[in-house]
Amino acid sequence: MIEMDKRVYEKMVAIWSITRIPQLQMRPTVANVSFVWARGEIAAVPFTVFDELAPIEIVDLIEKKMEKNYGINAKQYRANHSGYLADPFSSQR
Question: pTM for this structure?
Fold first, then answer.
């Protein structure tokens, strides 16, 4: 089962930590990865593309498809990461 693959699992955890799109799910098939949410399908991408893209790139793709297909600005669902914007080396100066 592809969704049990460690790389796939970690990538999806990263995606879910970036966005809070309601009921966002990943549904793998033989060749594609489909993303669906509360209102239906968002996008399907070949697994090779999913594997090559970084989580933030996948979120960008999902957001663009939601804008196109549903007229919704999905950036409103982005998680607040303002606490992570501090310089991680500031305490070493």
Answer: 0.82
